[in-house]
Amino acid sequence: MKLLTLNCHSWQEDQQLEKLDILAQTIVERDYDIIALQEVSQLTDAPAEGAYKKGHFGLELLKRLNSLGRTDDRMHWSFCHYGYDVYEEGVALISRLPVMETDSFFISESEDPAHWKTRAVPRITVDAGGQLIDFYSCHLGWWGDEEEPYTHQVEQLLHRQRTDRLSFYMGDFNNHAGLKNEGYDLLKAKGLHDTYTLAETKDSGVTVFGQIAGWEGNAQPLRIDYIFASVPVRVKSSQVIFNGAHKPVVSDHFGVEVEIEI
Question: Which SUPFAM superfamilies does the annotation name (predicted)?
């Protein structure tokens, strides 16, 4: 099974349509089964187009996948908050495997979409050859935020975990693996297993260089985008993608792809 997570910084990128095409082409080429995306936006005042609004980033990606021959993909999107006064920003999961269940829930104390720190998480349950597996697309806040405590978000995220199913938590966790006794260590202490550390082959794992929104003043390489499993699994490989060396850069984050033996 192949998984991809990417904070796509949608509609904020230069040459956005070209980068969207690169993303779609890579999904087809790399043959991912499940894709978790963060910062997936649509214009608030855009007209409706089915379940979403015209120009929804995920919907535009699905159209491109369909045109490239991937016609089985289905998307589940959760609206989090308004962004830049004009967007409805959320997080999404795309699956080419049969989706048996969907869910969406808040992990932040705020549930007000007018508050930019409001965080929601979508879940899908897929049928992977007769095995039900849960996938979550995650975009968490920051360690040390007194208004929206990270510990609360992690507790709410894991509160719904089904112990009788394998679960994968994929996304932008906004906590650097290199900082001890902060968010990354908390996630591991709560029982999650980092597929990067489990991987038989891996690269640096770095997904952010320099300053981005939320990491102003940063001057070090960061590993803040992860794919966690609820139990140890065999991970054949973990690679950073869309970093300029392995496919062109398409966002202010690089993506992470893993290949897992289920």
Answer: DNase I-like
Please name the fold of domain 2-261: Deoxyribonuclease I; Chain A (3.60.10)
Amino acid 150: pLDDT: 98
CA atoms of 244 and 214, how far apart (whole Å): 22
Q: Please give the Cα distance from 228 to 193 (Å, whole number).
A: 5
pLDDT band (50, 70, 90) for residue 216: confident
Number of neighbouring beta carbons within 10 Å of residue 222: 21
- Strand ranges of the sheet holding 225-229, from the earlier edge strand across to the other edge: 99-106, 120-128, 131-139, 166-172, 225-229, 193-194
136 falls in which pLDDT band (50, 70, 90)? Answer: very high
Q: pTM higher than 0.70, yes or no?
A: yes
Q: What was the pLDDT predicted at 215?
A: 76
Q: Where are the domains of the chain?
A: 2-261
Alpha-carbon distances, residue 101 vs 95, 120, 124, 133, 169 (angstroms)? 12, 17, 6, 10, 16
Residue-level pLDDT at 43: 97
Burial of 102 (0-12, 13-18, 19+ CB in 10 A): middle
- Of 128, 122, 127, the C-alpha closest to 5 is 122
